[in-house]
Amino acid sequence: MTTSYSLPYDQEDYTKTFKPKSSLSNQLNKFILQNKKIILFIITFIILSLFTNVPYIPHLKFNTSPKIVIILAANEGGGVLKWKSPQEWSVERSSIANKKHYAKLHGYGLTIKDMTIKKRYSHEWRESWEKVDILKQTMRQFPNTEWFWWLDLHTYIMEPQISLEQHFLENLNNQTYRTLENFNPLNLRKDIPYVDYTQPIDMIITQDCGGFNLGSFLLRRSQWSEMLLDIWWDPAMYEQMHMQWEHKEQDALETLYSTQPWIRERIGFLPLRKINAFPPGACSDKADDPQYFFKNNDFVVNMAGCEWGRDCWGEMEHYKALSKKLHKRWWKFWS
Fold first, then answer.
1. Given CA atoms 28, 30, 31, 33 in this order, what sign does their dihedral have?
2. Among 23, 53, 221, 45, which residue's Cα sits nearest to residue 141?
3. In this structure, what are the phi and psi dihedrals at residue 61, rounded to the nearest 5 degrees?
4. What values do phi and psi take at 177, rounded to 5?
5. Angle formed by the axes of helices 24-34 and 36-51, to 10°?
6. Integer angstrom CA distances of residue 260 from 75, 244, 300
7. HSE of 152, CA atoms in CB hemisphere, 13 A
């Protein structure tokens, strides 16, 4: 008599014939093998588009330039043209760290321009006109950036959590004034013919007790700004007027604003404390006028002229400590 028995369930299944299910990787491999010529062509096309200048091939370009670039005038690293004291090193480090933190926080670009090269301008009477040349260079360096914000070394961003868009750029027409009716410290001509104030604003500056302040200002990329920089950098300006104009490029811009309608119509003014608040000691003859001087929660402090008889290091340390205090986290109240 033959004894019959049954295999365990798992062994019984094992003896059955079956066709394994094709995995995703198997399907992908099969697709690649079937279409390898097409895939090779696509990869070659992408490489040629991104990394070469082969003619007749459309080239893919990715806009990696930031919308805003901060230009900081500094002498990073010292160099051989000027010996710096420990206080000057400290001021420079603090200012650079402040701008780097702000740019990183908001996704802005930052370029630090070595001001030791400014000596190369002096033999052609262009000393103090270097801002114009550096702006032209930076625009070439960042061809897709819209706004360029110039900051002198002796400035400190006191409210780093506020973006420029939030502070005034998104509401530019309401934040700026276009004429000199209400504030005109130099008594420039209040109006000239053929000015169209409906034109967009391409340059944002402030006025202080000495006129236009170029320690902190913004320039938008446009055909207008390119023409402005060209005429601002014209040899007729610095060769013929360098002895008459005490403030060099500032006086040049004020003259252009006073006489050229096409320049006047694209300049917008911010109140000084919006991007250029002064510490006590600057504009000392206006010590009783609050529109000039820093108050808590002002955006930027500009220690203008501190190298002429004031303590740049002391002022920088004061405002650095004040900014830290104003933004101290509530849970650190005991420290």
1. positive
2. 221
3. -125, 135
4. -125, 150
5. 80
6. 35, 20, 30
7. 20
Instruction: Please report, as a single letter, which amino acid is at residue 253.
Output: L
Whether 75 contacts 301, CB under 8 Å: no
Q: Give the three-class secondary structure for 38.
A: helix
- In this structure, are residues 143 and 135 in contact, taking their beta carbons and an 8 Å threshold? no
CA dihedral 196, 217, 259, 188 (to 10 degrees): 100
- List the one residue out of 221, 234, 299, 311 whose CA is nearest residue 266: 221
H/E segment holding residue 228 = helix 223-232
Q: Are 112 and 72 in contact (CB under 8 A)?
A: yes
Pairwise CA distance, residues 305 & 10, whole Å: 89
Instruction: Point out the least confidently predicted range of 6-15, 25-34, 91-100, 289-298.
Output: 6-15
Q: Which parts of 118-210 are beta strand (E)?
A: 147-151, 155-157, 203-208
Q: What is the pLDDT at residue 79?
A: 47
CA atoms of 112 and 102, how far apart (whole Å): 14
- The pLDDT tens digits of the residues spanning 118-159 come to 555 555 545 556 788 899 999 999 999 999 999 999 999 999
pLDDT > 60? residue 81: no
Q: CA 156 to CA 117: how far, in whole Å? A: 23
The pLDDT of 314-331, averaged and rounded, is 88
